[in-house]
Amino acid sequence: MHILIIGAAGMVGRKLAGRLAVDGQLGGQGVDVLTLADMVEADAPAGFTGEVRTAALDISKPGEVEKLVAARPDVIFHLAAIVSGEAEADFEKGYAINLDGTRFLFEAIRLQSTREAAREPYKPRVVFSSSIAVFGAPFPEKIGDEFFTTPLTSYGTQKAMGELLLSDYSRRGFFDGIGIRLPTICIRPGKPNKAASGFFSNILREPLAGQEAVLPVGEDVRHWHASPRSAVGFLLHAATMDLERLGWRRNLSMPGLSATVGEQIEALRRVAGEKAVKLIRHEPDPFIMGIVSGWARDFDTSRAESLGFTAERSFDEIIRVHVEDELGGNLPTYA
User: Fold this and answer.
1) Per its UniProt record, what Gene3D superfamilies does this chain match (predicted)?
2) Per DSSP, what are the bridge partners of residue 25?
């Protein structure tokens, strides 16, 4: 099997590649080739015994993504995106990457499938990482998959467009696609990025490393979360499940945990103690507060759960996943 990960240098892409390297298989089939594509060259995952190919390219440039699809990968994970805050700040860049890049990818697959129809058919599995940002306020108490998509950010609009394209290209038989709306991933390892949601991770990750963190919103802000470990699990399940069960509703919201910022902080207090909580500094940011005010807070993900998707049930669990996966199971010794 040949697997292509677009956005492989990002946090989720790196973790997905690492998991595939450890497993050595997907859906019972051995992984022989792993192609890792991003704007910068991605690192090969440790321990992978097959062939690793890397490509540094811009998917928003016509013709670039066709080079990846020409190798006819069996499974394509499309994770590449300009994150929410950056997409809002840079309108043109957001649409170039999040919409044009997605459309170029889908078109490259369509052309490959029709161009090669005279010989072995080509119909890959495509897993598209969408977002709960496709929904906009006002919301019901819990948002189900039937709720209409009226995003209030450019990022959410671009992801919603990608969902529609995925559904139509799948319906026309060019590929077998599924779009998974990821919760906000928490706790993200590494350094802060330009995502407006970054503070949800920052206020936990930095204190868990003995460092100060800035909280730009009030503690009553409620949001929908899942860990990086769960995100990888969603992607792998989406790549191997029977998509006949989806019908033509090819996009669905992933399970997660609804929690307020205050509940996050209380979970941090239970796991790491009062000294960790005291490292959080409140500095209101009107720009971030304005974006967050239009975000979804809670979901009914019974459809995804009935299809086998699972996530954490408490923020204590999310924090412990981070401690296990990123800190070697050790909490810092606070001064």
Assistant:
1) NAD(P)-binding Rossmann-like Domain, UDP-galactose 4-epimerase, domain 1
2) 30
Q: How far apart are CA 171 and CA 288, in angstroms?
A: 38
Largest CA distance in the chain: 69
Q: In 3D, which of 49, 47, 50, 53 has the Cα closest to residue 6?
A: 53
Residue 50 is encoded by which pair of tokens?
């097959």
- pLDDT, one tens digit per residue, over 61-117 is 999 999 999 999 999 999 999 988 899 999 999 999 999 999 999 999 999 988 755
For the segment 159-172, the average pLDDT, to the nearest whole number, is: 98
Q: Rounded to whole angstroms, how far apart are CA atoms 312 and 70?
A: 38
Give yes or no: 334 in active site.
no
User: Do residues 196 and 291 make contact, with C-beta atoms less than 8 angstroms apart?
Assistant: yes
**Where would I find the H helices in the chain?**
11-23, 64-69, 84-89, 91-94, 101-115, 154-171, 198-208, 228-240, 261-272, 274-277, 286-292, 302-306, 315-326
The active-site residue out of 95, 122, 155, 169 is 155
pTM of the model: 0.94
Pairing mode of beta strands 29-30, 25-26: antiparallel
| Superfamily grouping for domain 2-182+227-253 | NAD(P)-binding Rossmann-like Domain (3.40.50.720)
